[in-house]
Amino acid sequence: MDYEKALEWVHSLPRLAEHPGVENEKKLLEKLGNPEKSLKFVHIAGTNGKGSTTMMMSNILKCAGYRVGATISPYVLDFRERFQINGEMIGKDVLAEVLTQVRKAVEALENEGWDSMVEFDVVTAAALVWFAKEKCDIVCMETGLGGRLDATNAVENTLVVCITAIGKDHTELLGDTLEKIAREKCGIFKKGCTVVCYPEQEKEVIEVVQEQAKQYHAPIRMPEQEDFYFYRGQPFENRVNYGGYDLNIAMPGKHQAYNAGVAIEIALALCDKGFDISDEAIIEGIEETKFPARIEVFCKRPPLILDGMHNVQGAKALASVLEQEKVKHLTLVIGVLHGKGEEKMLELLAPYADRCCTVTPDSPRAIPAQELAQTAKRYYRETAFFESVPQALRHAMQFAENGLLICGSLYLAAEVRSLLEKTANTTV
């Protein structure tokens, strides 16, 4: 298969398994010669912050001189963002070659009467095949959905498990309480691994983490909130000291400072397991981490902000940044998927925006723009819905003298970022 045909095949696969579990992935990896057995892992699960933490940790290890594989889910602009070594995406020809190999294994299993694979099974297997071929020293692997039944849970040689911020998302699959969701996320724990936990968690989440860690004889490291000192800086700067590490984090928000603290604790846990990671590598790795569509500030005055936040917890983090920066009277462009708590998201952002322009993200699960606008009318002085994202942006920019905020979905963020890249000189 060439690259385009390989992508076409991947995207033709089902998104969700009829019977979720890791057995399909284990069988597929076995057919591929178990590439995962030659690798070591930092395994990262949670509701929010997985991608940022994965990238911070990958960069730390790269700066320490290691060859680091990283999986990112979902991607924003390019499918190949899902597969990275030392921050570089996989080449198109290489990905086509790897996916061809995986497809042969999938078809062989189907001929043996095995269940059909879903897209994430294939993506995970392809990443592990590539990382093994490239002889990565370690892999920072982000779960797709949940943890216990996730395809990534087929790996075994896990040195550190990370639990990022946990909130209510995908409740139809993971459970309707924080305790149930946390239990699913903690399903990636392995005997003897070190567990690193995000510091700002609800009590029931902490209790599940502690309980599960005890079962697996896994020590826990968790940054203490009082160990963070936040410096005053310029707008949207994120200067913080954690445990003696002075950091200038490229991504704004207290939550990103906490993610950085988590990355530091992961690095220190790896040092305990024999890795050589200097303080300089930790600082450099965190400070060079940039992640598209994570409260991404294209312009500060007036602000032009793009955020792929897609649930209530993400909206709270975004609102906290807007409050800190004393941003008011924005024009909001928003598109949301069903089941993400759209009314609460709109309510949380309402103090910072006067106008709301709703759009329909490019997803079958998207809330129609007109329907979302009806909800938005309860919270915004002016609301309007639009048939297309470019149309909404053109309209919004006419009234955005105080700034523009685009958020609500990574699908929307991807489309907007692509448009902004095509018009690099865009100003509000």
Compose a concise summary of this entry.
With about 425 residues, the chain is α/β, with parallel strands linked by helices. Helices cover about 40% and strands about 15% of the residues.
Explain the overall architecture.
Helix 3 crosses helix 9. The mean pLDDT is 94. The chain has helices spanning 3-12, 23-31, 50-63, 92-111, 119-133, 171-174, 178-185, 203-215, 254-272, 279-287, 312-324, 342-349, 369-376, 389-398, 410-422, and strands spanning 41-45, 68-71, 83-85, 88-89, 138-142, 158-163, 194-197, 220-221, 228-230, 238-242, 245-249, 296-300, 303-307, 330-334, 353-358, 382-385, 404-407. It has 2 domains: 3-287, UDP-N-acetylmuramoyl-L-alanine:D-glutamate ligase, CATH 3.40.1190.10; 296-422, Protein-Tyrosine Phosphatase, Chain A, CATH 3.90.190.20. The termini are far apart. The chain contains 15 helices and 17 strands. By secondary structure, the protein is α/β, with parallel strands linked by helices. The strands form 3 sheets. It has an 8-stranded mixed beta sheet, sandwiched between helices.
